Amino acid sequence: MHKLIYFIRRTSVAILFVVIEIIAIRSYAYSTPYTQARLLGMSNAVTGSFYALLHNIKGYFSLRSENERLTARVAELENRLDALGSDAATVDISASFHQYEYIPARVVSNSINRQKNYITLNKGISDGVSTDMAVLSPDGCAVGTIIDCSEHYAVAKSLLNTEFRISGVLAKDGSPGAVWWRGGDSQIVEFDGVPKYATVEAGDKVRAAGFSHYFPPEVVIGTVESAEVVGNTYHCRLRLAADMARLQNVVLVNNMMGGEAQNLEASHK
Amino acid sequence: MRYKNYILLAVVAILLQVLLLNNITISTLLAPMLYIVCIALMPIEWPPLRVLLAALTIALVMDFTMGTCGLNVIVTLPVALLRRPTMHYLAGISDISSDEGIPSAKRMGVRFHRYFVAIIVLHSLLFFSVESLSFTSFGLWLARFVCSTAATLTLAYLVVFLFETKLHSK
């Protein structure tokens, strides 16, 4: 006890200094948008490097399951290629139009237990990443969108963020609705606004509508767990297709025509 | 009152900073921070906690009057904390109990100038780095740092000179 008191006495000035500095830096950071952006960028760079180190160690131990998932994905794509049959051979790839560009990235930090969750990735501006790019899991399911980039890191707003909204449609008949997270369970999101004349059943797949210009339309968001009619619309609970808690790698999607479409829409508003 | 002289100097420096220097703009490159003399000239024997709390009070007054929301606290507290090591290494005061009172050129000679300039340069370096948070316009940052540090040093030496002359004439 005496030793503890002695230790506190000896370090009281240093502790007081650190506490005051933290309060002052926080106050200064939120004083103007410029300081907020600069300090957020700096903190991203520092925490990004730290989490990258931790993640590299952690990632080494999950290589087996990651390999299994990738193998399954390759098999699925080969099956789809086979299904195209001889038509695939006649497709002129050089003449085809590529709307989406895909960039693989590693997750360096990912939170799921807050109301506003974010994912930090190891790719940044120097790798061609920009804000508003979609983030998908390795098996092509929706995960979030990029909201900020530094030179070598990017931060994505996760689907598990109460401020995140995405347009979704029922895969079977295209009935539209909005997907959002209420908070709490990290595997369940809400899907509401679906017209009541649609037929919604448990097990139905919901995919991205593509209205937002971020996600390719075929991206799967989740599967309906339960649905009930509230007023004139369905209110559904979706089980997310992406395993948000175990994200190791992601794929970033750049909609190369998204900016043009948004500019055109903006000019008519 | 033992610290009457220091309190008088601190009040004069703070009032000059708040009422005059914060309200005149000669050039965007010139931003003298005269209030740092209050930290540099704190009595040598003051314990670190008292120095830290006094520096916090002065920095809060500056933040409040300049509208800088914590910037002065961020840069002034490290200077206050590094004051004793600076004294030790640059002014050669290894035993605080052997030398007390306000640091002065008359008593300490060239050791005072080394210490005094180091404190002001350190404060300016931190202030303009934290203020800009970027070195993309390094030339502009350097010009602002050099001009403002020179202006602060000139004013600080003027205040110290007037103060010591007044003390000497008594």
List the helices and strands and how they pair.
The complex is a heterodimer of chains A (269) and B (170).
Chain A: H1 2-29, H2 33-60, H3 63-84, H4 87-90, E1 100-110, E2 116-121, E3 134-136, E4 142-149, E5 154-161, E6 165-170, E7 176-180, E8 188-195, E9 205-208, E10 220-230, E11 233-240, E12 249-255, H5 258-267
Chain B: H1 4-20, H2 36-40, H3 48-66, H4 71-81, H5 83-90, H6 105-108, H7 110-132, H8 138-169
Explain what this protein looks like in three dimensions:
The complex is a heterodimer of chains A (269) and B (170). Chain A is 34% helix and 32% strand. Chain A is built from 5 helices and 12 strands. The longest helix of chain A has 28 residues, at 2-29. Chain A starts with a helix and ends with a helix. Chain B is mainly alpha-helical and 170 residues long. Chain B has one domain. Chain B is 70% helix and 0% strand. Chain B has helices spanning 4-20, 36-40, 48-66, 71-81, 83-90, 105-108, 110-132, 138-169. Chain B is globular. The mean pLDDT of chain B is 84. The interface between A and B is medium-sized, with 19 and 16 residues.
